[in-house]
Amino acid sequence: MGNRGMEDLIPLINKLQDAFSSIGQSCNLDLPQIAVVGGQSAGKSSVLENFVGRDFLPRGSGIVTRRPLILQLVNNKAEYAEFLHCKGRKFVDFDEVRQEIEAETDRITGSNKGISPVPINLRVYSPHVLNLTLIDLPGMTKVAVGDQPPDIEHQIRDMIMQFITRESCLILAVTPANTDLANSDALKVAKEVDPQGLRTIGVITKLDLMDEGTDARDILENKLLPLRRGYIGVVNRSQKDIDGRKDIRAAMAAERKFFLSHPSYRHMAERMGTPHLQKTLNQQLTNHIRDTLPGLRSKLQSQLLSLEKEVEEYKNFRPDDPTRKTKALLQMVQQFGVDFEKRIEGSGDQVDTAELSGGARINRIFHERFPFELLIKFHAIKNVHGVRTGLFTPDLAFEAIVKKQIIKLKEPCLKCIDLVIQELINTFRQCTNKLGSYPRLREETERIVTNYVREREGKTKDQVLLLIDIELSYINTNHEDFIGFAKYVIRKGWLTLHISIMKGGSKEYWFVLSAESLSWYKDEEEKEKKYMLPLDNLKLRDVEKGFMSTKHIFAIFNTEQRNVYKDLRQIELACDSQEDMDSWKASFLRAGVYPEKDQTVKDGPSDTFSMDPQLERQVETIRNLVDSYIGIVNKTIRDLMPKTIMHLMINSVNFIHSELLAYLYSSGDQNSLMEESADQAQRRDEMLRMYHAIKEALGIIGDISTSTVSTPVPPPVNDTWIPETRSENEQHAAVWERVTFPLLWLSMFRMNCLYTA
């Protein structure tokens, strides 16, 4: 087979360039290429057109190249051009190529000199070119025009840096001969990223436009301002030639004649001109590719492994095979069911770590959102005022209020179901994303599943409303958690029963105040009750504490002059602090036991307050009993709602495994269901093309003989003449060193002379 491969390397890189660009993974591999860098009007476009032998690049003033142009030159018998964004279309008229470049540039950047880093891929086939891949970059500028931003200089520089900082990129630094080479922008940025000069090739344009009596001989011989890889001179068409549509082949003949006839260049004419530049670039790019092969091989192998599993499905793919369609339909439905279960369970690769979804969100609805909605409704109970029992007994008033509050629970329950349904539908749609390759299948699956969910929605809502009606049908006041009329307690705590020593003396007891009575016990276990005092006809009065006492005392007495405790007309209760005493008094107020003096209400409507202590106790009792019972109902509903929804809606969607397939078969033609989308077909083709391109690339790389000798890189040269890009502070420092320091030294010298004299 011989040493195949070196001549195939550039077409190979071109193929990879297209394959990776089309599949959207162009950044995964740094493919070897040549970036053309230079200032505006440096002649970059003319050099590229000379390579092709055709006028095909946009012309004009200011920034003409506003997007990177990846130009792939392919030696071929036929002559035509292709754009990656116009697949299948061949351009044989190169004026149309120019128009397409302008139109595609304007499509991304606008028509008023804006720039974009998104490249345009152009491949030119011609018998007049050597295999070569170049990237034409926007010319460096310092002045913004049109709608360009003020920082256009930095934007262009950043774009250029994106390409030339890669070690796999050769730099073609283009500089006009009629400018100061020592201040070339192209050579400055090249040295910044390639300080050893291993990747930089100098090109001198416009040699024919130098002032009379001057030439660039020393530069082209690499004696003056040397570069490691040296310079190649070219002569492009003048603006007059371009305007007059001078043929490029005639221009290249004129270029050849210029070098052969010029006294300063005739001895190196064979090493000058566009053909030699093209040949040199072809050799250097080929050698550069060979040098980067080990790293490229490693990256290609990694890419191949990552594609292997997906491509395996496509290798023997036949779109119209009915057996394949049946198998694919079964697999898709099964996978859809598995994905849904995983999203509900929150397991496997279906877990979204960025935000809650599926089962996690439904769980939050059950245990956070729904209880919160219930709490809002429950809070309304706290605002029950002015309950009148004149027409109702306390138990009837209690039942009427409880039923009114239970009815209000319907709204948050139905809202909870709506939230769960929305999340279920969102989860189903996320699972159908994998059916995107088959649009009809995805559409039909979403329709069937959504209809099923809506059907279950009706049944679930009916069941939940039934639960509410069941709660309304019987108010169970014997529930073990219900405090009951007799059990309702307003306050508990320690108090000192303050009586004379003759009648037992003062002693601490555990007091329990309910809506009906005041009881006290030996201790807080409430096992040994000492006494129970009914609250009817009781009132409070303040008692002045004794001379040596630190306790705060209030008394309870009967307004009908009856004994309160044993033979005592009043009992005195002592607290450790004024705050504690005030708190107990407030509790007695809630129980309908008021201070001795008459109470008046200065603010609020008169119908919201009653002077009847018994009525006030009943209102307070009913309010708290409603609070207690609705708490029980809420607890029951909070428990049953998730269970009902899970049973009737979520757990029942196992119909995906048992019935969905049958629904799909009955809904329409299987062939139309499994009709592949155009995007999927294109993606498959591109994936296979990339896979085969990588395999072929690895094969070609493997065939390249390690004995193949590439041209060695020239030895280093002294390129300190190229000024480095420096910061503003460094520039000030340099000025100080060149100007201020000598003046300072001269001043010190004069002072020294005067001192000596």
If you average the pLDDT, what whole number results? Answer: 79
From the alpha-carbon coordinates, what is the Rg to the nearest angstrom? 46 Å
DSSP strand tally: 16
Residue runs with pLDDT of under 50 for 5 or more positions: 380-392, 599-610, 731-757
Strand content: 5-15%
Query: Numbering strands along the chain, what is their spatial order in the largest sheet?
Result: 3-4-2-5-1-6-7-8
Helix run count: 23
Amount of helix: 40-55%
Outline: elongated
The major beta sheet can be summarized as: 8 strands, mixed
Q: What would you call the structural class?
A: alpha/beta
Q: How many angstroms separate the termini?
A: 91 Å
Structure notes:
There is one protein chain. This protein has 757 residues and is of the alpha/beta class. It contains 23 helices and 16 strands. The chain has helices at residues 9-23, 44-52, 94-109, 152-164, 185-193, 217-220, 239-243, 248-261, 274-291, 293-314, 322-345, 359-379, 394-407, 410-431, 439-473, 484-487, 578-590, 613-650, 655-658, 660-667, 670-673, 678-703, 728-756, and strands at residues 33-38, 69-75, 80-83, 120-126, 132-136, 169-176, 200-205, 231-233, 489-498, 507-514, 517-521, 529-534, 538-543, 552-558, 570-575, 594-595. Strands 3-4-2-5-1-6-7-8 form an eight-stranded mixed sheet, with helices on both faces. Strands 12-11-10-9-15-14-13-16 form an eight-stranded mixed sheet. α10 (293-314) packs antiparallel against α22 (678-703), α12 packs antiparallel against α18 (613-650) and α13 (394-407) runs parallel beside α18 (613-650). It is elongated. It starts with 8 loop residues before the first helix and ends with a helix. Residues 488-593 form the PH domain. It comes from Cyprinus carpio. Residues 28-294 form the Dynamin-type G domain.
